[in-house]
Design a protein that fits this description.
This protein is mostly helical and 338 residues long. It folds into two domains: 197 residues, no CATH class; 61 residues, no CATH class. Helix 4 crosses helix 5, helix 8 packs across helix 9 and helix 10 runs parallel beside helix 13. The radius of gyration is 30 Å and the shape is elongated.
Length: 338
């Protein structure tokens, strides 16, 4: 027999409950899908109007990595000052001025400068400037650009950027339509929480993509190109492959920044608890580092840490949110006296 209901206890019911038939649900779903598609189309048109600028901005980390190294003005000033030192050999003076004033440095001058860098008593700033001279090319190369192998490829890439950009721009509108579809079946407490979830989920996704673009991609591409530093290899990067890599990185970091929201949602529905997450913290760290190593395109510690550290921090934030928002277990009822 089922236990009798406790006096005074009431089963929560959805406030302002609306009874809908299956066809009503399907019609509402059709309405929400159409509105989401309209928002997607509006975002597509908006992004398409600026697709050239957006594409150039997306490819800027790649193009910056393809630029040949350039001496800084501070290093050039140090070299000019060193060239004016009294008693300096003419060949050494000529090599210093060549590196300080010319866009290329001959191999003979590099050998002279390498000898100066190894000399005893050289100042630290001078040694750094002489070391930078070794990275300057010996031959003036044409500007490296991304290549495409089909006449239709640029147009398809622009359409691809416009499509990805439309999803990025219309994401809040699409999530709002999803919320409008599921809201009638939620309780009042749940409806109060969903709106902040959607807001912070969207904000964190955008923040993750921005973090990737400004702090991860600029050092990542030079690090990848360093693997081909041999004089027998020259980069000829396909524009479509680089776009796919950049968008995958932006999407990956956007999803990683969603970890606190995902954990908080799972704790609210009772699938995980804060104690469970804290118990398996060490396992989560290993999994996070492994995923970071898979997602990041390079294996250097800097880029690995730039993804792994946020993942671990967001996991800890998720534990805190799980303690605050987690589904509370009902208190154990005292045993009835016999």
């Amino acid at each position: 027999m089922s236990p009798a209901p406790t006096p005074g206890a009431s089963t929560p019911e959805p406030e302002a409950e609306v009874k809908l038939t299956l066809w009503d649900h399907l019609r509402d779903l059709r309405k929400r899908l159409l509105l989401a598609l309209y928002g997607l189309a509006a975002g597509f048109a908006l992004v398409l109007a600026f697709v050239g600028t957006i594409f150039d901005r997306l490819m800027m980390p790649v193009l910056d990595a393809l630029k040949p190294p350039v001496m800084s003005e501070a290093a050039r000033a140090v070299l000019r000052q060193a060239a004016g030192a009294p008693g300096l050999a003419p060949t050494s003076k000529a090599a210093l001025l060549e590196c300080a004033t010319q866009p290329v440095v001959s191999e003979a001058a590099k050998q002279v400068l390498a000898g100066l860098a190894e000399a005893k008593g050289a100042a630290g700033a001078l040694v750094d400037a002489l070391t930078a001279c070794a990275t300057i090319p010996s031959v003036l190369e044409p500007a490296r650009k991304l290549v495409y192998t089909s006449a239709i490829e640029p147009m398809m890439l622009y359409l691809q950027v416009a499509l990805y950009g439309s999803v990025f721009v219309a994401a809040p509108w699409i999530l709002f339509q999803l919320w409008q579809f599921i809201a009638p079946g939620l309780y009042k407490r749940e409806r109060k929480v969903v709106v902040p979830f959607l807001f912070f989920g969207t904000l964190l996704f955008y923040s993750g993509a921005a973090f990737c673009y400004w702090f991860v991609l600029p050092p990542a591409f030079p690090a990848m190109l360093q693997f081909a530093s041999s004089n027998t290899m020259t980069p000829m990067l396909s524009i479509s492959e680089q776009l796919s890599l950049v968008t995958a990185m932006l999407l990956g970091f956007g999803i990683v920044f969603e970890v606190p929201v995902i954990i908080a949602f799972l704790s609210m529905v009772g699938l995980v608890t804060a104690d469970f997450l804290a118990k398996y913290r060490r396992h989560a760290i290993v999994v996070n580092v492994t995923l970071a190593a898979i997602i990041t395109p390079t294996g250097d510690p800097l880029n690995l840490a730039m993804m792994a550290v946020p993942m671990i921090l967001f996991y800890e934030v998720g534990i805190i949110l799980a303690r605050i928002l987690g589904k509370k277990r009902p208190a154990a009822q005292p045993a009835a006296p016999k």
